[in-house]
Amino acid sequence: MRKKQRKLQLPEKLRWNHNEWYRRWLLRQLPSEVGSALDVGCGLGDLARSIRADEVTAIDASARMIERARATSEKVRWIHGDVLTHDLGRYDVVTAEASLHHLPLREGLTRLAGLTKPGGLLIVVGLYLTATRADHAMELVTLPANALVGIAKAINGTGGKPHDTEMPMVMTAPTLPEIRAAAAEIVPGARIRRHLFWRYSLVWRAPEVH
């Protein structure tokens, strides 16, 4: 994948966590009752700890992230491993928050779909590469909105924390057309939406087995 171009950076005090912004949206997509859930690329485990399910499993390729996440909760099953190769089961809900771009797109999406039980739900919130005219037009809204939110968060004392300093960063991402093309083949019927702040969402219900 191509290198993700740098977007205009706010001063440090005005930067903020875009993933946290969309986490509330992601959690609202979950069913009221969830038996088993898997969070892929869990990082420090903020999303995994927020998922209400009978059993929550979280996996990350970073040993340091899992070490720190494990210290925060014993209710989640924390796994250090590569989601593409680790022996995992299938889950009623699979989530991926800003983690799919750490994997080859088609291989990663295929794996996430395979981890989702029939009738289960796959929810992705990810980064996309600004590439099309529509993407650039969106930035006419995104850039000033990003600054306004940063100012508001700085005023109330919640700004200046775009990500943890130990969080592995990967400056690559697929384009939205690439994401839509892959989804059409791998998870047909998935709902894909462009969001503000350089994010997209993908929600897919795995077909029931008859």
TrEMBL record:
Biological process according to GO: methylation
Domain of life of the source: Bacteria
Cross-referenced CDD domains: AdoMet_MTases
One term of GO molecular function: methyltransferase activity
Keywords: Methyltransferase, Transferase
Pfam families hit by this protein: Methyltransf_25
Residue intervals of the Methyltransferase domain: 38-120
Name of protein: Class I SAM-dependent methyltransferase
